Amino acid sequence: MRRSMKKAISLFLLSMGVSGLMAQTNEFKIDVQQTGAPIQSTMYGIFFEDINFGADGGLYAELIKNRSFEFENPFGGWTPFGNVTIQTKSPCFDKNPHYARLSFNKELTGTGLDNEGFKGIGIKAGEKYDLSFYARTVTNGPIKFRINLVNDKHDIYETKEVEINGKDWKKYSVVLTPEVTEAHSRLRITMLTQGTADLEHISLFPQNTFNNRPNGMRADLAQALKDLKPGVFRFPGGCIVEGTNLATRYQWKNTVGPVENRPININRWNYTFPHKKFPDYYQSYGLGFFEYFQLSEDIGAEPLPVLNCGLSCQYENDDPNENCPVDKLQPYIDDALDLIEFANGPVTSKWGKLRADMGHPASFNLKYLAIGNEQWGSLYPERLEPFVKQIRAKYPEIQVIGSSGPQAEGEDFDYLWPEMKRINVDLVDEHYYRSPEWFLNGAKRYDSYDRNGPKVFAGEYACHPNNRENSFLTALAEAAFMTGFERNADVVHICTYAPLFAHVDAWQWRPDLIWFDNLSLVKTPNYYVQQLYGHNAGTNVIPLSMQNEPVTGQNDLYATAAVDKKTNELIIKIANTGIQHRKIKLDLNGLSGGKHKGTVTVLHASDLEAKNTICKPDQVVPVVSDVELEAPAAEVILRPLSFSVYRIAL
Ligand code: AHR
């Protein structure tokens, strides 16, 4: 046993207060006939925020950084050569007015622009890429451009030519089909004709996007989301909803309509962590609210947008001028009402028409709306209340979600929960990024929650040790904790792990569910835990106990049971956090006598520090086997350090 592994295991065991290391028989009583609370179809969802280059440079398939020359440094991401300037006169797009002017007068260097992409441009051999831009000539006559893909050794491996003509802005495009696969290529545009021309919104998009959507998502990353079978999709944040100040808050109306004319916004994760500064991090809003709704539909999840409540990030500033006064909140509330119209309204309504014009006349069937992210103090309820009143009055069918603040307990949390009850929100958003010990102790968290108040939405949660790395240890602790979600499905209606994505070369925050580079991705052990819950949610909880108690850590075990009425199956989930095999006797009350076939899926690693990486993505993956349980009394043996999900035909 490696030293580090020994250390990890002993820490883990200490933290759990393990009673003994001898295997012993544990007896679980499961009553299949006592169908309990329904498990909401929204129960296991996902949370997306544009952090760690999750949107631009990640899920959003655009490959050009700063395609509109709108960064504070308009050449950010670009290397101009020859005579290139930035202009704003008579722009092509009024909300993104900067463009590049290129003049070529036989300069020895040539005149043109290189784009570096997001830590390079990921290109796959044989795939087709649409290069497009808007252009006009300033001098008379047509102007020819050469378009190249160049690798990091400056070898050129794709060349096309495009000729532009005319003094009015027009869109030009050409298809690039590289013959090599390269994670760090660059796009190069060079003038071949003498003269002057203007270029704007230079875009390079793979034709292969998820569900072949134009302006779509990177296929592999979006597929990984769909493969989780998420019940709900929370977007677009997180702290970026709040903004560092109100001017930089997320405003959904800036993210819809023609993609070229969505005004960009600085991303707060550009500068929030000084030790992880990314001056090139902006939000292009190419992935905007229309695309979020469409993606929710494409992956089969209920959309769950979060809107600013009139407060900017309370961590970042305490300037009262950065809060919208309560009596001036109406534009913020209108944003919420208009969003519901954008998602669900008839095509004859103002915002419903925009949705239809963007290609989706049918309603997106929005059911949930969160107001505020991690807010605290009386500033929050006094703003939330008018939102709730107006949303209820106009759209009583919408479930409104309030926040209990950034902490999972303590003064702010204790103040906000009763306030949420008073305001009568439908669900309360809780956030916790905590240690393995906290997660294991928290398996009982919801057993004592008020059954008559708002429901729980665990909107951001992830387990992490001090180094915040994703590992099997954290995944196993989350699996154990989540048995508490399921057992309390009458109270917990939605949970979404956070955050989703991180670029291996450009991350600010961990842990994260999926890591990626420009060509591939890796699913963390935590991903597989979420997937096991998502695919094995069941429809109703059923009682599971050991010595008349729920199984919340006795003998290192955490367990819960459900039935799936649609498939007529019993589902048992058991986390064994100890280093011993555990023998479990299952008393299956209500199951007809005899053998019942099924499967068991096990996520296991003998090293708690085990990780999946881009180079070794399969260190911790679930393994499925057939299983047969004898009713009414069966015996199973659990592997040490494992999460097992049994699915048994009833
Ligand atoms: O997920 C990263 C951040 O964590 C979110 O933006 C915020 O809501 C939480 O503090």
UniProtKB/TrEMBL annotation:
Signal peptide boundaries: 1-23
Pfam families recorded: Alpha-L-AF_C, ASD1_dom, CBM_4_9
SMART domains: Alpha-L-AF_C (SM00813)
Reaction(s) the record says it catalyses: Hydrolysis of terminal non-reducing alpha-L-arabinofuranoside residues in alpha-L-arabinosides
EC number of the protein: 3.2.1.55
Gene Ontology biological process terms in this record: L-arabinose metabolic process
Top-level taxon in the UniProt lineage: Bacteria
Assigned protein family: Belongs to the glycosyl hydrolase 51 family.
Residue ranges of every copy of the Alpha-L-arabinofuranosidase C-terminal domain listed in the record: 459-642
GO molecular function, one term: alpha-L-arabinofuranosidase activity
Name under which the protein is recorded: non-reducing end alpha-L-arabinofuranosidase
PANTHER family per record: ALPHA-L-ARABINOFURANOSIDASE 1
Highest classification ranks of the organism: Bacteria, Pseudomonadati, Bacteroidota, Bacteroidia, Bacteroidales
Top EC category: hydrolase
